[in-house]
Amino acid sequence: MKILVCISNVPDTTSKINFTDDDTRFDANGVQFVINPNDEFGLTRAMWFKEKQGATVHVATVGGPSVEPTMRKALAIGADEAIRINAEPTDGYFVARQLAEVVKNGGYDLVIGGRESIDYNGGMVPGIMATLLDMNFVNTCIGLEIENGQATAIREIDGGKEKLEASLPLVIGGQKGLVEESDLRIPNMRGIMMARQKKLNVVDPVDAPSLAKDRKFEKPAPKGPVKLVDAGNVGELVNLLHNEAKVI
Amino acid sequence: MSVLVYTESYNGKFKKSAFEVASYAHEVAQNMGASVTAISFNAENNHELGDYGASKVLNIQNVDLKTFNAKAYAKAIAEAAKAQGAKVIIISSSTDSKFLGGILAAKLNAGYVPNVVGAPESTDPLVVKRMAFSNKGFAHTEITAETAIIGVSNNAFGIHENKVSANVEDFSPSLGDADFSTKSLEVDKVVGKATIADADIVVSGGRGLKGPENWGMIEELAAVLGAATACSKPVSDMGWRPHSEHVGQTGKPVASNLYVAIGISGAIQHLAGVNASKTKVVINNDPEAPFFKAADYGIVGDAFEVVPKLIEKLKEFKAQNA
Ligand SMILES: Cc1cc2nc3c(=O)[nH]c(=O)nc-3n(C[C@H](O)[C@H](O)[C@H](O)COP(=O)(O)OP(=O)(O)OC[C@H]3O[C@@H](n4cnc5c(N)ncnc54)[C@H](O)[C@@H]3O)c2cc1C
Q1: Beta-carbon separation of A248 and B185 below 8 A
Q2: Is the pLDDT of residue A124 over 90?
Q3: Which pLDDT does position A211 carry in this prediction?
Q4: C-alpha of residue A77 to centroid of ligand 1, in Å
Q5: Cβ of A137 and B275 within 8 Å?
Q6: Where are the beta strands (DSSP E) in chain A?
Q7: What is the pLDDT of residue B197?
Q8: Residue A116 and residue B313: Cα distance in Å, rounded?
Q9: Whose CA is nearest to atom 11 of ligand 1?
């Protein structure tokens, strides 16, 4: 089985978010970048397939040279090869088109993306990719087993979960649940040394349009201080929720 | 010209979000001088959509589409959009709609913007405000494609009545076996209880509750408020509550009108998923808990004392306002 894990290079969860150039660009200054958490669950599941069932695992991303440390980290975790499509990601459609090209040329059986990236939260790349490639697709995937070219997947739904069956080739939008957080791997010294010898291929982008464009960014308005209610006067909270906030 | 809106239903009944997206579609259509066409799957009372501005409803009655199937639903919606010449399609931000969004975008070559928090700032070109950076920022996004898909964030626009009479037409999309290549085997869904995605109010418990045996008071508080129950990540990791209740950045997003956090510290990853809620109430025994900085109302106190009192006061309130 040949697996491609699509990786988004995102600001670490705890990063302070700032904008620059008259609020038209994300300010990457001083920000630590990591593998998108949803993708990390997928990468770990891919390692499970590699180790338990035998699979080749490649990782791909769309980005400039600055994303390479994140790709090296994926290689150190155990991916066999990395592909960087040398373009600045513009919108979800553009990214999906680039990744779809890699999938087409690489003959992958399983493509693992994340439910969404934690920066732009678009959540559309796996679905667009699957549709462009005419592959089966399962989103918000929290469980995946593959036996003889047939996948059984579990996806999260509002208020529960659904078990699905689909044949390969398959694209998933994964998240926590694909593996537990305790299964996530921190690259060890051996992995980091081996990653240096692994291939990090840089490929040119294909010509593709962007269908949406972020014009400007904005931070949420600063919040006023919390109104504290005395623990001995809980009725006051009910009163505030009814008369002031008007939510009950 | 029409604006097409996908209205979700469950067991034949429209979800609350169906009325919200229809209201949203009405607003967009008014700005564009267009009308609203809704598409529904196996809904019982399509005329209801007229109350929110849909003058036409494409009614699909098809047993194969009883349970949501992303590929087949997307094909049907794309077909309807083409047939109606719809250049703007409105969907919700439910888990199912987010499943559809990318598929639809690829089928229609459309610019898709999810997590939209208000009516468009402009319709020519179409510019919308959406959440980004896990609720730590907003983006003003222009759709540069000819066709647009807007995913409205739950509770962001609200439900607005605009009574028209809805003309209901049967619609039969041309579906074949290939559209059902992903098969549903089993659905495990809590029934008879509000879900996090639909609920106006969410009551959430964290590690401060000490164990699953103490969830009775969370359930009771939720029942009094007509709320859905949720939890922080460690709570679902430890198996105290099902994973579908885990909210936050790696769990489900919450955009309710009222979010009540009990025994939850308010770590940044938790806040990322719940900050879109309008009013936040925090009950925590630690006055330094970070959640108090993000909350609108707070009580510093022991949950085991405060929550039962709160339930009692809410019951009194309900009795008075019944
Ligand atoms: C990549 C990543 C992603 C993550 N994603 C998520 C996510 O999606 N959702 C999420 O929730 N977390 C997430 N986390 C974990 C997050 O960082 C916190 O660890 C978690 O939210 C803490 O949960 P908690 O507040 O229930 O528990 P704790 O941090 O243990 O806090 C418990 C709180 O309860 C209070 N308390 C204790 N006893 C009482 C009492 N008797 N009465 C009242 N209050 C009491 C304490 O004062 C404390 O504030 C993520 C972490 C990482 C690294």
Answers
A1: no
A2: yes
A3: 98
A4: 27
A5: no
A6: 2-6, 9-11, 19-20, 25-26, 33-35, 56-62, 81-85, 110-114, 136-147, 150-157, 160-167, 170-174, 199-203, 212-218, 227-228
A7: 85
A8: 41
A9: B232
Residue A174's Cβ-side half-sphere holds a number of Cα atoms within 13 Å equal to 32
pLDDT at B251 over 80: yes
Nearest CA to ligand 1 atom 39: B208
Ligand 1 centre to CA of A1 (Å) is: 39
Contacts of B42 (CB under 8 A, 6+ apart): B9, B12, B60, B61, B62, B65, B66
**Mean pLDDT score of chain B:** 96
Return d(Cα A192, Cα A76) in angstroms, integer.
5
Looking at chain A, the whole-number percentage of residues with pLDDT higher than 90 is: 96
Residue B298's closest chain A neighbor by CA?
A228
Q: Which atom of ligand 1 is nearest to the CA of B289?
A: 49
First CA to last CA distance, chain B? 45
Rounded CA separation B124/A212 (Å): 14
Of all protein residues, the one whose alpha carbon is nearest to atom 37 of ligand 1 is B208
Both structure tokens of B191: 């029934």
Tell me how far apart the alpha carbons of residues B229 and A102 are, in angstroms, rounded to a whole number.
Answer: 42
Which regions of chain B does DSSP assign to beta strands (E)?
A: 2-7, 9-10, 13-14, 35-41, 56-60, 88-91, 111-116, 122-123, 126-132, 137-143, 148-152, 167-170, 182-189, 201-205, 228-231, 258-262, 279-284, 297-300
Residue B102 and residue A124: Cβ atoms within 8 Å?
yes
Q: Which residues contact B2 (CB under 8 A, 6 or more apart)?
A: B29, B34, B35, B36, B37, B56, B84, B85, B86
Taking the CA of residue B157 as centre, how many other CA atoms within 13 Å lie in the half-sphere pointing to its CB? 34
Q: For residues B217 and B315, is the Cβ–Cβ distance under 8 A?
A: no
In order of A161, A228, B243, the CA distances from B189 in angstroms are: 6, 37, 12
Nearest to A228 among B268, B300, B316 (CB): B300
Above 90 in pLDDT, residue B285?
A: yes
Mutate to test the interface with B, among A178, A211, A230, A246 (most CBs of B within 10 A): A211
Closest ligand 1 atom, CA of B264? 25
Contact across the interface for B145 and A212, Cβ inside 8 Å: yes
Bin A78: left if φ > 0, else alpha if -120 < ψ < 50, else beta: left
Q: Which of B270, B275, B277, B309 to mutate to test the pocket of ligand 1 (most atoms within 8 A of CB)?
A: B270
Q: How far apart are alpha carbons A99 and A126 in whole angstroms?
A: 9
Among partner residues A126, A220, A226, which is closest to B102 by beta-carbon distance? A126
Residues B146-158 pLDDT 10s: 999 999 999 999 9
Token pair for residue A141? 């995937």
Quick one: pLDDT at residue B81? 98
Bridge partners of A10? A34
Alpha-carbon gap: A151 to the closest alpha carbon of chain B (Å): 10
Cβ–Cβ of B249/A229 closer than 8 Å? no
A160/B190 Cβ within 8 A: yes
